Known about the structure:
- The protein is of the alpha/beta class.
- It has a single domain, classed as Metallo-dependent phosphatases (Purple Acid Phosphatase, chain A, domain 2).
- It has helices at residues 23-33, 55-67, 82-89, 117-127, 149-154, 160-169; strands spanning 2-6, 17-18, 21-22, 41-45, 72-75, 96-100, 103-107, 134-138, 173-178, 185-189, 192-196, 203-204, 213-214, 218-225, 230-237.
- Strands 6-7-8-9-11-10 form a 6-stranded mixed sheet, covered by helices on one side. The chain has a 5-stranded mixed sheet with strand order 5-4-1-14-15, with no helix packed on it.
- A hairpin with a 2-residue loop joins strand 6 (96-100) and strand 7 (103-107).
- Helix 2 (55-67) crosses helix 3.
- The longest helix is centred in the N-terminal third of the chain and has 13 residues, at 55-67.
- It is globular.
Amino acid sequence: xxxxxxxxxxxxxxxxxxxxxxxxxxxxxxxxxxxxxxxxxxxxxxxxxxxxxxxxxxxxxxxxxxxxxxxxxxxxxxxxxxxxxxxxxxxxxxxxxxxxxxxxxxxxxxxxxxxxxxxxxxxxxxxxxxxxxxxxxxxxxxxxxxxxxxxxxxxxxxxxxxxxxxxxxxxxxxxxxxxxxxxxxxxxxxxxxxxxxxxxxxxxxxxxxxxxxxxxxxxxxxxxxxxxxxxxxxxxxx
Length: 238
């Protein structure tokens, strides 16, 4: 399987330039670039729009994803309007599972800033299934603090400690693919590997306590995997 992950698009209006970046143009360039990989699936992990965006922006994004002719899954981020997004993309909700190849992937909605008790119980039930030896989880917020001071101080997943403990205590091999932090980073907690996807729009300086954007880089993750191996590669475009 070859899968790409994109995150934190923050599309405003097509053609609008913010801080020197045309977010819509960056999305189009990235979708063109990843065609070379003959992908089996594309993960779009939240913050498709900037806060307050209307239905027309989600429709524009959906049209671009549809035109790329790559099967894809979307989940919302904290900047998204989940109800509008569900209506445009035809989803009943954003907590679901999907078979990609021979592996089941679990998708969680953290757009409210936490994992809901129902979703937590669902994940726990799935991970206690003896037939599950490896789990792939897709969510917007990482289930941990990530040594990125600006984000860790104010924008962390509210129940990250509970979620990480649930994952760690399952004793399963778990890979979590998330975004939100606008950095490229991999963290390891026992058998839980957390992959933070860079933004397609802009990055954040991971060393600064206050916000400092890095606007010349657009990024994504390329995942190659099979039943018993996985390769995760961070990719950047200027």
